[in-house]
Here is the input.
Amino acid sequence: MAKSLNKVQLIGHLGKDPELKYTPSGVAVATFSIATNESWKDQEGNVQERTEWHNIVAWRKLAEICGEWLKKGRRIYLEGRIQTRSYEKDGVKKYITEIVADDMIMLDGGTPRAAAEHEGAPAPADNQPDGDKDLPF
Here is the structure.
């Protein structure tokens, strides 16, 4: 069977402070968004810009680090994987695509590095509880 790869690397700015919650079983989960910007010159020579927003979710120790150290506007490097999941809200099935963070480095000061594997956190493949039953949202 052929191998596959699901890896994302982003450098961007936080759109708001991370929201840190705990699942009913006590697992930390932080959610936040990162903005990445792209610019180019159009055919008339005018500079055009586009901002892409990425939904991020971090689990366990990395979630706690993000909740403590990250603030709106901070520039970070983030590694993770793309995940699409579904949930039901008001009887309507909805889908969300997000980046599950495995590693984060603050690029504009603060602690130099916060990786998911630090302090005994599980490897990235185990960086999320089984099933959606532990999701607080």
